[in-house]
Specification:
CATH architecture of the largest domain: Alpha-Beta Complex
CATH topology of the largest domain: DHBP synthase
Bound molecules: threonylcarbamoyladenylate, magnesium ion
Structural class: alpha/beta
C-alpha cells in the first residue's frame, strides 16, 4: 500500500527518500516520482516502478541553481536561463561535472544531465529537507498520461511506491520544457511550460531535434502520453461513438479544455480530461483543433504523441 501524505508531512516524505524509498510529489507541472538520485538502487527502483526503458534519462530536481551547479557545468546561457526561469517549468540539459554524484543510471549513461528547480512550495520544501538531488520522472507508467493530481498517481503506482505527497492539482498541467545546451545552438527537445517564444527572446533561434537520428528517449518517441482509446486530432465534431474534447466556445463537447479558448487553462486540464474520457463506453476521443500559440505548442505536441499509437 502506498501512503497518501498531507503537505505537513514533508519531513516523513524526506525521511523515506533519504532511506532510498520512492515518493511521488507535486510540482507546478505534473506529479514527479521521486527517488534519491545519488542512490543507484533508488534510481533502479524508479525505472522498475514505471516499467521505464533504461535508455530514457531522468530529470534531477534541486532546490536552487547553486545546488544544480554542483552537478553540471553551467555556461553563460544556462546562467541567464536559470536567473530568468527558475524556479519554473524549464529543464536544462548540461554536461555532467566530473565529480557529479548522481547515479549514472539516472542519466541513462549519457555525459549530460537534465536539471530543474520546480516552482512548487511543497516540492521546494521537500528538496531542501532531503538535502540530496532527487531524480523524478512524471509519476505515471511509461508511455501513459502524466498525472496532475495524487489520485492519478495512485491509479497507476499504488503499491509500487512508498508514498505520495498530496497537494492537490498541478497549476500548469503540462511537463517542463526540455532544452539541450550541450551543443553550440540550444536545442528544444520537448516543448513545455516555458514557451519557445520566451526562450527565443533570450537566446535567439532554437534548433529542433534531428528526428532521423536515434531518439534520445521515449519522451521523444512518436507514441507517448497515450490514453487507452484512439485519439483523433483536429476534429470538427464527434462521431456517434466518440467522446469530444473541446476547445473554445462549443456546446457539443463532452468535456471542454477551455470554453474561453485560453491555452493556459487548456494545459491545466489536458491530462485530467483525457483520463476522464478514456472510458470503455467510448470508441475513441476526438479532439478539436488548438492553435499553436503559447502553451498550445506543448499541448499539440502531447496530443500528436497521444494520437500516434505506433
Ligand atoms: O515537468 C517535468 O519535467 C516533470 C516533473 C516531475 O518535473 N518530469 C518529467 O520527467 O516530465 P520525464 O522523465 O517524464 O520526462 C523527462 C524528459 C524525457 O523526455 C527525457 O528523455 C528528457 O527529459 N531528458 C532527461 N534528461 C535528458 C538528457 N540528459 N538528455 C536528453 N534528454 C533528457
Ligand atoms: Mg513522463
Amino acid at each position: 500500500m502506498t501512503d497518501r501524505l498531507a503537505p505537513h508531512q514533508i519531513a516523513r516524505a524526506a525521511a523515506l527518500l533519504r532511506a532510498g524509498e520512492l515518493v511521488a510529489f507535486p510540482t507546478e507541472t505534473v506529479y514527479g516520482l521521486g527517488g534519491d538520485a545519488t542512490n543507484d538502487r533508488a534510481v533502479a527502483a524508479i525505472f522498475a516502478a514505471k516499467d521505464r526503458p533504461h535508455v530514457n534519462p531522468l530529470i534531477v530536481h534541486l532546490p536552487g541553481a547553486a545546488e544544480a551547479r554542483g552537478l553540471v557545468v553551467f555556461d553563460a546561457r544556462a546562467e541567464q536561463l536559470a536567473a530568468r526561469f527558475w524556479p519554473g517549468p524549464l529543464t536544462l540539459v548540461l554536461p555532467r561535472r566530473a565529480d557529479c554524484p548522481v547515479s549514472l543510471l539516472a542519466g541513462a549513461g549519457l555525459d549530460s544531465l537534465g536539471v530543474r528547480v520546480p516552482a512548487h512550495p511543497v516540492a521546494l520544501e521537500l528538496l531542501r529537507a532531503v538535502g540530496r538531488p532527487i531524480a523524478a520522472p512524471s509519476a505515471n507508467r511509461s508511455g501513459r498520461l502524466s498525472p496532475t493530481d495524487a489520485t492519478h498517481v495512485l491509479a497507476e503506482l499504488d503499491g509500487r511506491i512508498a508514498a505520495v505527497l498530496d497537494a492537490g492539482p498541478c497549476a500548469i498541467g503540462i511537463e517542463s520544457t526540455v532544452l539541450d545546451l550541450t551543443g553550440t545552438q540550444p536545442c528544444l527537445l520537448r516543448p513545455g511550460g516555458v514557451t519557445a517564444a520566451e526562450l527565443t527572446a533570450l537566446l535567439g533561434p532554437l534548433a529542433l531535434p534531428d528526428h532521423d537520428a536515434a531518439p534520445r528517449g521515449p519522451g521523444m518517441l512518436a507514441s507517448h502520453y497515450a490514453p487507452t482509446l484512439p485519439v483523433r486530432l483536429d476534429a470538427v465534431s464527434a462521431r456517434p461513438d466518440e467522446a469530444l474534447l473541446g476547445f473554445g466556445p462549443d456546446a457539443g463537447a463532452t468535456l471542454n479544455l477551455s470554453p474561453a479558448g485560453d491555452p493556459v487553462e487548456a494545459a491545466a486540464h489536458l491530462f485530467a480530461y483525457l483520463r476522464a474520457l478514456d472510458r470503455p463506453e467510448f470508441a475513441g476521443i476526438a479532439v478539436m483543433p488548438i492553435p499553436e500559440l503559447g502553451l498550445g505548442a506543448a499541448i499539440n505536441d502531447r496530443l500528436r504523441r497521444a494520437a500516434a499509437r505506433v
